[in-house]
Amino acid sequence: MNAPIADFLDRYAESGSIRLHMPGHKGANGAERFDITEIPGADSLYESDGIISQSESNASSLFGSFYTAYSTEGSSLCIRAMTGMALTYALENRLPRRILAGRNAHKSFITAAGLLGFEVDWILPESGELIYGNASPDGIRRRLENGEYAAVYITSPDYSGGMADIKGISAVCKEKKVLLAVDNAHGAYLKFAGEGLHPLSAGADVCCDSAHKTLPVLTGGAYLHVSHSAPKELKNAHAVKNAMSTFGSTSPSYLILRSLDECNLALANGYGAKIIKCCEQVKALKLKLNEAGFKTVGDEPMKISLAPKSYGYTGKEVDSFLRERGIYCDFAEPDRVIFMPTPNNGGEDLEKLCSALASLPRRAPVRSRPPFIKMNLSAVPIGAALLAPFERIDVRDCVGRICAGTSVSCPPAVPIAVCGEVMDASTLAAFEYYGIKECDVLKEQ
Fold it and tell me: Which fold has domain 382-442?
């Protein structure tokens, strides 16, 4: 397998060319040598027919997709594009602008749905928690039998490593002729960790991967995949690029494109075996932690989701303890501490984590629980509320007010309340539990 983007950038950096084009740094230092714009030969991300197209084809062959498109703006861009593709599917098949979506959706889905005029019916996580948990195939079947939808949108893995039954959900969606879109931002590596783990292998029609989260790719590198089993309306590279360009920057980063390109070489030359080894090391570490009395949750093989309350600590307390010892997690909240190792960490890093946690004195269990999330009444369509005049208020005054914008609780960017919803006492309880002090509400007329 070749790396056409990297090869072109190397040749250009060594050519001594006079750069009378963007960017302004003119390739003066370090990585800037490879940071260019769409000069002749460099191809164009959203109209690719050269080196970018070749590199995307390499990625497609590695992931087993019908078509794979690159993003230099993370999965957020891919999620917006998938929502746009769902609109295309709806219009082609005369379906309503209505999506059935897991409530733990990333806020980029909500903004895209609002801008595209979708009505969203929410699937509450069966765990009852805001961030973690997914619906079952049977639960989705019941919802599809009671309403007409263009698409089902699922986040899997969730932030805690919980993985939905994509194969079962896909079978239901195929039966009902509904598009299945999966936010697989945290699971790009799953294609190489075991048979049938990646959403493409499990039957998703379209899905996105944040390559930078778990593969050796610069921040912002992501994939939008279209499966071989996707409806014919979506198996069109030009349509995919059109959806991407509708929401994407016209100045994609060639540093990120190079990183995605070189990741293909890594995956084609043994990185998959390193992923499997890392998953084995993570499994062994989880067993050690469980034997020591810690609780781990989630079934994602290369993620460690510690639920430390049974050991006597909140997630925030464990995070603070580890940071004092030079160990940084990916995310901590009251109920979880999330660690995202990759093969680039090596076993030594995992041993240091295990040793640090083993030195944590056990205490009486923490009894507090996250507030149960219930469905709020929607008073205004998402699109109408998204950019309406708003004001920022203390969360203690939010009950009875209509949410504006996207109030988020943490890095997963999962909204506590969706814009257009009337907030109630349970919303206030969730704001306070996750440490949110202020929220945006629609201005009262």
Answer: Molybdopterin biosynthesis moea protein, domain 2 (3.90.105)
